Amino acid sequence: MILNKYKKFIPLKRYGQNFLVNREIIKNIIKIINPKKTQTLLEIGPGLGALTKPICEFLNELIVIEIDPNILSFLKKCIFFDKLKIYCHNALDFNYKNIFYKKSQLIRIFGNLPYNISTSLIIYLFRNIDIIQDMNFMLQQEVAKRLVAIPGEKLYGRLSIISQYYCNIKILLHIRPENFQPIPKVNSMFVNLTPHIHSPYFVYDINLLTSITKHAFQHRRKILRHSLRNFFSEQDLIHLEINPNLRAENVSIIQYCQLANNLYKKHKQFINN
């Protein structure tokens, strides 16, 4: 069923606004999120309240981040407005830690993310992973598939590695374009990202992992001894039991972590000497 109010609102392309309008899918998403009154929930991009309104029924307060003043004007007229703590801010540089310190508990973040910023926003949120309980996002299908891709798959890349380093990721719903207004040109997926409690991965310096994967996938058709030649010799790779003739998409997350940690130890040894 399509919600009539969406026909009266003109979405702005610069904010990547595509509003979810299917009631059944909205109900399913609320069940997945399963909000509790004792929890701190934060919604990024509430839009016209498709998720905001039903979530508010479970809470005394819902924190929302919205950059569009037209959306804010709309929300002020809604019956659930008194339950909202609104920040008119860009989610890409918002200080999420302030919310954590105010509430003294982990934050649950959710939202129908604008497709044009979803990847950058997820990477930004990983910098705050220690204050996040979980994240539930509507994403463009390709981005969702990149999050969960494994070595050997076409979509496996830097985003897959960094995301899986931080979180256990599950695709929970597949959603067709006609369930949004305006109708996007791509399919969507609803995804849960839950930070690892006991991570299978470890690096001393996440910046080194980021740098190594950036170089490896910049020229993903090159073999490692060429793409990472500024970091490792062929003998280094062999010593780490990583085939120097592998291409970037065939190297596991654990192996990338090995490379990052080896580079960290080299730098530390160089400094100490």
Structure description:
- There is one protein chain.
- This protein is α/β, with parallel strands linked by helices and 273 residues long.
- It folds into 2 domains: 192 residues, Rossmann fold (3-Layer(aba) Sandwich); 67 residues, Helicase, Ruva Protein, domain 3 (Orthogonal Bundle), CATH 1.10.8.100.
- It has 11 helices and 9 strands.
- It has a 7-stranded mixed β-sheet. The chain has a two-stranded antiparallel sheet with strand order 1-8.
- The protein is elongated.
- It starts with 18 loop residues before the first strand and ends with a helix.
- The mean pLDDT is 92.
Computed structural class? alpha/beta
CATH topology of the largest domain: Rossmann fold
The SSE string, one letter per element, is EHEHEHEHEHEHHEEEHHHH
Number of structural units classed as domains? 2
Biggest sheet, in brief?
Answer: 7 strands, mixed
Secondary structure: helix percent: 25-40%
Keywords: Cytoplasm, Methyltransferase, RNA-binding, rRNA processing, S-adenosyl-L-methionine, Transferase
Binding site for S-adenosyl-L-methionine: 18, 20, 45, 66, 112
Protein name: Ribosomal RNA small subunit methyltransferase A
Family: Belongs to the class I-like SAM-binding methyltransferase superfamily. rRNA adenine N(6)-methyltransferase family. RsmA subfamily.
